[in-house]
Specification:
One of its GO terms (biological process) is respiratory burst. This is NCF1 factor. It is found in: Cytoplasm. It is a single chain. With about 400 residues, this protein is of the alpha+beta class. It has a domain at about 5-140: PX Domain (2-Layer Sandwich), CATH 3.30.1520. The chain contains 11 helices and 14 strands. It has helices at about 45-55, 85-90, 90-100, 105-110, 110-115, 120-125, 290-295, 315, 320-360, 375-380, 380-389, and strands spanning about 5-15, 25-30, 35-40, 135-140, 160-165, 180-190, 195-200, 200-205, 210, 230-235, 250-255, 265-270, 270-275, 280. Strands 8-7-6-5-9 form a 5-stranded antiparallel β-sheet, with no helix packed on it. It has a 5-stranded antiparallel β-sheet with strand order 13-12-11-10-14, covered by helices on one side. It has a 4-stranded antiparallel β-sheet with strand order 3-2-1-4. The longest helix is centred in the C-terminal third of the chain and has 38 residues, at about 320-360. It starts with 5 loop residues before the first strand and ends with a helix. Residues about 145-155 have low confidence and may be disordered.
């Protein structure tokens, strides 16, 4: 068997320890290539020092030379005082860091620095304790928070796609392709750019140039949603093709069909057309640094611009013309207006029918008979009787 390497790291939670003084350690389940599984404990300060050393070992991949080449994940520096709240809040970031770390190119993920850091130590098997001090308190990561890419029980299997045409990269963060190249997709983005690896190369590739090996990719929405979903334009774009829309930053639009190549069909008032999804943000959603970085890049090529290609995309995906989008969208808007008008008319009719009833004089309560003088004198007080008499 070759050199040992890690196939998966899962964050289990953290421990609050009281010896030699109160501190916190994270618990990791490390799965090795020989199928063994070990639990190790690391303080965050140790993890951060490991991270800094890793960046020094791989300055290109850490982005020190060119930020566009960075593939080593970010990790926030430890605070002056790490309490239980910061330890708990950091778990999501740490879980994502470990997932990304293991999936880096082998020269990084399988280097001795990574392997040695996660090897079982003597303290992992026999943690230092003191019978006079409280036992460590264990805080396991909730099950719900494990519904993420880190919730994996075995080796990660990446999807393999085939390039349907040659693609020349336009920036250092992209990867050039030749027709027929087989690539493994690491990350699929709604922007239409997918992060792929080919042998020892990694980079962003337009989804329009890729097709699955076994059949048409059906991960995009099958049917348009003419009701529309509200989005806000985050970056202006000037139409190049006739079926595209020109919009300005800040415009509010409705997305009616999300397509895999990153060009979505949108509606502005009663006009429909294609627009780069990477320049859109869902209404009410908070902006993130990752999305901001993507928007600084150019829009990916559209599938329709790839000429003379025999692709299985055309076999599986139902082609919808822009005229169909426009006609059905207008029909939906008109039906919506008619329904609103009918509802308003019904409301008016109900009000008119109720008006005569409302105008009818309501029945007044009967006036009680006035008591006789003798009854009043018999029931009143002595002072009242004197006043009357």
């Amino acid at each position: 068997m070759g050199d040992a390497f890690i196939r998966h790291i899962e964050l289990l939670g953290y421990e609050k320890r009281f010896f030699p003084s109160q501190h916190y350690v994270y618990m990791f389940l490390v799965k090795w290539n020989d199928l063994s599984e070990k639990v190790v404990y690391r303080r965050f300060t140790e993890i951060y020092e490991f991270h800094k050393a890793l960046k020094e070992m791989f300055p290109i991949e850490s982005g020190d030379i060119n930020i566009e080449n960075r593939i080593i994940p970010h990790l926030p520096a430890p605070k002056w005082f790490d309490g239980q709240r910061s330890t708990e809040n950091r778990q999501g970031t740490l879980a994502e860091y470990c997932y990304t770390l293991v999936n880096l190119p082998h020269k990084i993920s399988r280097c001795l620095h990574v392997v040695n850091f996660f090897k079982v130590r003597h303290d992992d098997m026999n943690p230092v304790t003191d019978s006079q001090i409280k036992k460590p308190e264990v805080f396991l990561l909730p099950k719900d928070s494990k519904k993420s890419p880190t919730d994996i029980t075995g080796p990660i299997v990446l999807q393999t796609y085939r390039a349907i045409a040659d693609y020349e990269k336009s920036s250092t963060s992209e990867m050039a392709l030749k027709a027929g190249d087989m690539v493994d997709v690491v990350e699929k983005s709604e922007s239409g750019w997918w992060f792929c690896q080919l042998k020892n190369k990694r980079g962003w590739v337009p989804a329009a140039y890729l097709e699955p090996m076994d059949g048409p990719d059906e991960s995009e929405e099958q049917e348009p949603n003419y009701a529309g979903e509200a989005y806000v334009v985050q970056k202006s774009y000037t139409a190049v093709e006739e079926d595209e829309l020109t919009l300005k930053e800040g415009d509010t639009i409705e997305v009616i069909h999300k397509l895999l190549d990153g060009w979505w069909v949108i509606r502005k008032d009663e006009t429909t057309g294609y627009y780069p999804s990477m320049y859109l943000q869902k209404a009410g959603e908070v902006n993130t640094s990752v999305k901001s970085e993507l928007r600084n890049r150019g829009a990916p090529p559209r599938r329709s611009t790839i000429r003379n290609v025999k692709s299985i995309h055309k076999q599986g995906r139902k082609q919808i013309s822009q005229e169909t989008y426009r006609r059905n969208s207008k029909k939906f808007i008109q039906n919506k207006r008619n329904m609103r008008g009918n509802f308003q008319n019904k409301a008016n009719v109900i009000i008119e029918k109720n008006e005569p009833e409302d105008n009818k004089p309501k029945a007044q309560p009967a006036v009680p008979p006035r008591p006789s003088k003798d009854l009043i004198l018999n029931r009143c007080t002595e002072s009242t009787r004197r006043k009357i008499l």
